[in-house]
Amino acid sequence: EPGLYIVATPIGNLGDITFRAVDVLKRCDLVACEDTRVAGKLLKHIGASKPLRRYDDHSAGRAREELVAAMRNGAVALISDAGTPLVSDPGYRLVVEAHNAGIAVVAVPGPCAAIAGLTVSGLPNDRFLFAGFLPTKDKARCDVLAELGPVPATLVFYDTGPRLTKSLAAIATTLPGRTVAVARELTKIHEECRRGDPFELVAHYEAHPPKGEIVLLVGPPLEAKVPAADAEALLVAALATQKT
Ligand code: SAM
């Protein structure tokens, strides 16, 4: 079937590709990808061989036009180097143009580091806000944290080993009292999930510089606690109304 297929691929463990993703990648006419070498390896692993086109959202409009033209008569699969396309990865502008051209956009879901991290973090997951990578500059990073701080949801960020301690220190000072989780190397040999107070985690990762890929999660703000003196006054008032 012609159209644009958004195909999720593994985030480390090659066993995590779905049957349907394999099927779509084997049947499609063209694979649009972030990096042709990475895509080539994955296709080889599943025994497929397809024409590859490098794509990112900064590619010239022409590259997108060519892909949209290919979608009219054939199936184009979009993949990232790892995980779900468009989630801190290219594809957004391509999806918009496919919709504008009346072309079917089809989800072929699968691994996504943000969701995998959330599920192992032990932080509340009834509400979460995915915010991609934090800015690299100190001021901008603190501004983003201050902006997201009041949101009553678990915050989910992507991060890298070299930046992690700076991110944790910024969370410790900008959002004091929050529980933090670091989900590292998910689905890979050195997978770990470490939870706790951000100051303690800074100390840990300063002693053991983290390697690999990281999802950083910040628990929601605590429910406003009623100060003890007020609580007593409230209790007395409540009991008084009960008597009448
Ligand atoms: N689109 C991808 C997805 O759906 O997961 C994410 C792409 S983004 C450019 C790459 C970031 O995802 C990494 O810096 C890291 O924060 C996170 N990531 C990817 N694979 C991971 C893994 N196996 N464990 C932890 N985090 C991972």
Short description:
The protein is an alpha/beta fold.
Major sheet description: 5 strands, parallel
Strand content: 15-25%
Order of helices and strands: EHEHEHEHEHEHEHEEHEH
Rg over C-alpha atoms, rounded to the nearest angstrom: 23 Å
Looking at the structure, what is the overall shape?
A: elongated
The percent range for helix content is: 40-55%
Secondary-structure content class? alpha/beta
Determine the number of helices (DSSP H or I, runs of at least 4 residues).
Answer: 9
Q: What does the average pLDDT come to?
A: 94
Give the topology.
Elements: E1 3-7, H1 19-27, E2 30-33, H2 36-45, E3 52-54, H3 61-73, E4 75-79, H4 92-100, E5 105-108, H5 113-121, E6 128-133, H6 138-148, E7 154-160, H7 164-174, E8 180-184, E9 192-196, H8 198-207, E10 213-218, H9 228-243
Parallel strand pairs: 1-4, 1-5, 2-3, 2-4, 6-7
Antiparallel strand pairs: 7-10, 8-9, 8-10
Helix pairs in contact: 3-4, 6-7, 7-8
The structure holds S-adenosylmethionine (SAM).
